[in-house]
Structure formats: C-alpha cells, structure tokens
C-alpha cells in the first residue's frame, strides 16, 4: 500500500471514523484498520460506556461534516443535573440558566454506526475490520498490519499514519519507545459498573436531565436512551465493589444508599446486572508530543484518555479531528508541518481537560451537595448575566464554547482570585 496523498488510520471507533470522513473530504485516499468486528453487527459495545454526552465541541466537528442534525435527531437533550438525596428528594441544577443550552445523551453504538456508514459513502475510503497493528518502524516510516482472519501480515506505507486506537493505543505504545516522548498514565481507585432502568419504568424518571445520586465518596448517574430506558452507571472505589460480594449485601446497600433507585431498576435486574460483569477501571493518559517524525500522529483517547466526569472524552476527540483539519487547511496540506503544529497547539489543552475531568468527579459526588458550591454557582451566574463575554463560568466555557481547555482553566484561576 503506497502512493501520494494516502492516509492510514488505526482504529475505526468514534474518533477514527470521524477523522476518516474529514480526510476523505480533503481528497486523501484513506484506509482504516479496525481491530474489532464491524460494530454495526454487534448488539453491545463490551467494556465501554454505552451512553455519551455530546456538547458544543463535538457538535462543531459533526457540523463541519454535515452530520450534526442527523445525530441530534436521535439524541436526547439534557438541560441540567437532577440530584437525588439519600431521602429520595430531588433538586434540579440547570446547566445554563442564561441561554438554556443543554448537552445531549447519545448512544455509542448508534453514533459509531452513523459515522462508519457515512465514511463508507466516500469512494476514497476503505475500512478493514479484524486487522491489528503489530509493528511500527519509525525510521523506515512503515507499519505492519495483521489480518486476524487469515493471519497474514502485511507492510503498509502512507503519507500520514494516525493512531485513533483508544486509551490503550498500540501506536502510542511504540511511540513511547522513541526518545523524548513523555507519557503518564494514572488509574484512579474507583471503577464503574453499568446498570439499567428498563423502558417500562423509564417514564418514572424526570425526563431531559442527567440524574445524579451523589454520595461523597462515590456516586451513581443515569442518562436517558431513545427507547425510554436509562443507562445507570455506578462509580465507586474498587474496595466497595469487592465488599458487595453477595445478593443480600447488594440489596441492603442499595436500599440504604440509593433507596429511590431500587424500584426503578428492579431488584432482580439489579442483582443480575451487578454480578454479570466485573467493574471496569478508569484511566487518565497524558503524553507529549502527539506526533513522532513527519508521518505519525495520535488523536482522541490515544493522545489524551480521561476519566468520564466532564463528559468531554468524545467531544475532545472530535475537536481533535476538526482542529487537525483546520491546521491542514492553514498549511495547504503540508502533513509534516501540520502534525508538529497540532502537537504544539493541543498538548497543553489535552492535559488541562484530563485534570478538569479528575476534578469534576469530586464535584459531582461531593461538592455538589455542599453550600459553598451553590454560593459560587450563584455568583458565577450573576456575573455571567451581567458580563456574558467577560465572565464565563468554568462548566459553561468547557461545555458550551470552543475556548481552548487551557484558557478555560486560566479563566477559572483569575475568577477564583
């Protein structure tokens, strides 16, 4: 595989598919290698969060390839957080009182399927499922791909090789072996496990909200699905998961800590879902730079995996695609120059959102229940109303603008002062 204006993308997930669409629209010949089967043929995405929160940055990228309206047709708007106290009382906290902006719950499978289908419409795109990256030679600028069905290995060349292969990226693992490549990964002591409120009981939930059961050291959230069911995610220390090692302990725990959620989930479904799988780990990844040499680039979770508490993982990955497309345009398709500029412009923003995501877990599970949080929120909203361009609250700037993530944190610091 060789030729002028060719691009190889490792990974056909959300970010890889969108990147392929951007590159195909620029006229490149694009080949996507995906380790898994075609996700459109699978009922579930194993080991990955089913629901995602789509906000401004992701919408801007989808809009650039004329897909935003299609996605929003099947997305469910969430206009605020609905907090559930241990007594079963609820409290509504809108995301944006001033202009009533919202975020959208969208199914991972649906979104990935739409992107794959759209990608296949371009005659200059080819996708190869069940193909695995097994070797990278940065000096010769080639990679080796293994066909998992035939066990045939082939050497591949391209003008640009993009790693969009997730938090445990194979391309990044090879990059880590190169000089001056900085890499840091952090696992938090908390994991997550997904439960379900079935459609027949979903109408008992207040619609168009992200529901949160904050409990200081842990929390549970619920996002709506198009079929009226809700995807419930329990975030908790692994030690707490391990302590709930039989049905009696689990039932007692939920009746004590999440009493209003038990009749919504249903005791039998709660037990079967809880013990069906092990809780999944949560990882944060930072690296610098996001490229090696003149042809190799990583984007999305491969470059900046983050814990899910700001709802920005997918949005940041989609913004990567839009930013890189813009940089290519600025540089008249000079790939070597563009990937260097992408690293220069993106690394600090990526680090900033990874840190914000860590912080937001503490806010969602604990600070959101405390009086100082509401005092700060009142002041933020008051000043935001008076100075809509001069004082933008942190959450609004991250979620509802395209202000660089690092600039969002800088604004927060002077606002704190």
Automatic annotation (TrEMBL):
Keyword Acetylation: no
Coiled coil: none
Transmembrane segments: 6-24
Catalytic activity: L-kynurenine + NADPH + O2 + H(+) = 3-hydroxy-L-kynurenine + NADP(+) + H2O
Pfam families per the UniProt record, alphabetical: FAD_binding_3
UniProt domain FAD-binding: residue ranges: 6-323
Keywords (A to Z) from UniProt: FAD, Flavoprotein, Membrane, Monooxygenase, NADP, Oxidoreductase, Pyridine nucleotide biosynthesis, Transmembrane, Transmembrane helix
GO cellular component, as recorded: mitochondrial outer membrane
One of the record's GO molecular function terms: kynurenine 3-monooxygenase activity
Protein's name according to its UniProt entry: Kynurenine 3-monooxygenase
Taxon lineage: Eukaryota, Metazoa, Ecdysozoa, Arthropoda, Hexapoda
